Amino acid sequence: MDxxxxxxxxxxxxxxxxxxxxxxxxxxxxNWVSIALTLLFFPVALMAxxxxxxxxxxxxxxxxxxxxxxxxxxxxxxxxxxxxLMAATCLWLGLSGSGMFLLWTGVxxxxxxxxxxxxxxxxxxxxxxxxxxxxxxxxxxxxxxxGVAIAIGxxxxxxxxxxxxxxxxxx
Length: 171
Fold this sequence. Notes:
Layout: H1 3-26, H2 31-48, H3 52-74, H4 80-122, H5 132-137, H6 147-157, H7 162-167
Helix pairs in contact: 1-2, 1-6, 2-4, 3-4, 4-6
């Protein structure tokens, strides 16, 4: 595998990690992360040799995720950055990887929420000594940085996505 392929395959994982960490530390996912994911998908997909029909399916899955995410945002279930990151990630994962992505994101998000609920109940005494981002996480009834779960779900689903498989050497 050449260097260009390794860089292309590292784009999505690197950007979702940046988005997840940024959400953990600031409770915000910068727009540039989702924009970069969206724009960089197309050259990587062309490099992988995805045909027009497969590209159209990826775009359709990404748009469907954006509409569902916008609905979830309107209901105040997730933040706007979460909705955009989820849509950009589904663009990369397409039909073959989005199901596992949503499953992993839900499982990791549920476990992360349980962990935060327990930490918020039992670790209030460390809040005055914690860094600002950790103290914010420990606030009772505070928000949950769901970008963390989205990033982990994306990393777990990416190996099974057709984009990743297009780069795999023929055995």
